[in-house]
């Protein structure tokens, strides 16, 4: 186990270093990074001043070591536009994104997983067919379209929910539904496959032969074993929800990190964009790691394989 | 009856509708100049925000018009060109680069292999949409840049498959024989390895194509994709959001087209995967 853990941690560390380096060099490759941060038509004097101010006039290797050590201390620099530390700006927006993604995750798991179990147990039930249709549609539905449709129906036509913003407590409902649809479809599909896999195994037939009902077999045996792939998918889905928030937050004017990113690109506030992307990458690497560890904790067979 | 024909076995009838949708959208894109009722960029101040079916001075707006009086149907037909071209080119570029790098990584092994496959891990560890967004922020938006960005973010998917497949083939007798007979690396990779890994690569292509359509539309929706006045479904939808209370059609129809395209590609892609992997 410790060897597996060590190897996995090293992989994660290399990924984190790699991503930070990648983004640093992407900026340099594309030309003068200062030009990313000044408004169009800025004077040469202003550009030079900003360059000296941000330290871009130093050798690239010095800049790189500085950049890496700053990031190690979680110093993402200053917002070019607002002249406030990036960390403060992100801190003020982060709770909104966590709230939105959290509600979406609850919806996706709470509806998707039971739907998957049902579709596995009653394969030919008409509802299962509708469920499969939903899974297919959910995976092909652009969030920016489903968002507009939701607004059109529930805000414009019916007037039940606010169309945008985060002022009212019920503001979260529509963006969360919109964000959760893809993950919900994924959970339903994965759960269905996992339960079907379990149900085809000999021990299930033995349990049935012993006289347990289908419901009992699923509750007592199949569910626990089929939870393993679902758990690991859940970790990956959190990363998807966080990055999917970029578009959903734009549709619903939700004041989270996604909206901040899009606004910052428009305002040419590059340090913020960079910080959000790095944060997203770190979270996603961490969640992948967590998924693997969780997986091996739940399923001893993987642990043995990893430590060989 | 139909099931027993050769076509029916290869492509079950329940999938024909999706083939139909694809054929319609692809022909719309190819024949756009011939079938579009109007110039997609022609503005008409008298015909602003007209509902679907309205007729203004001999021009019938079948799917309505937008805030500048442009015919929505014509814009959507030309938008199909943008969607399909960007998706096809980015799949082509990322597929070629990824497959080549994957084969090279497997073939040469050692440091080259390690570095390439580490790059694969690193790029895949960043959520794709975020990586695309930061790359566009650096490069700037535009047709070519969108393709470059999509190719850059997606090549590792192909590299991973090509790497695994090549590793499996490398030591087979026929490959070793051709090496002993003096074939160059390029020749072995192109003549003996590539034809045998193209199946699994095509599976990735079909799965990635829908994603590329979605990404292009998403980037255009955020204003980071193909720039106006070129009609892109994502950009039209985004502009339509401002008129959702008065002119719902501007936002609804481009999304519907997108949904149908992505759905068809995904359903048929799943089918291709099942066929290639021999599940049916």
TrEMBL record, chain A:
Transmembrane segments: 12-30, 98-121, 133-160, 172-191, 227-252, 272-295
GO cellular component terms, A-Z: plasma membrane
Protein family: Belongs to the binding-protein-dependent transport system permease family.
Entry GO MF terms: dipeptide transmembrane transporter activity
InterPro entries: BPD_transp_1_N, MetI-like, MetI-like_sf
Domain ABC transmembrane type-1: 94-291
Keyword terms: Cell membrane, Membrane, Transmembrane, Transmembrane helix, Transport
Name of the protein in question: ABC transporter permease
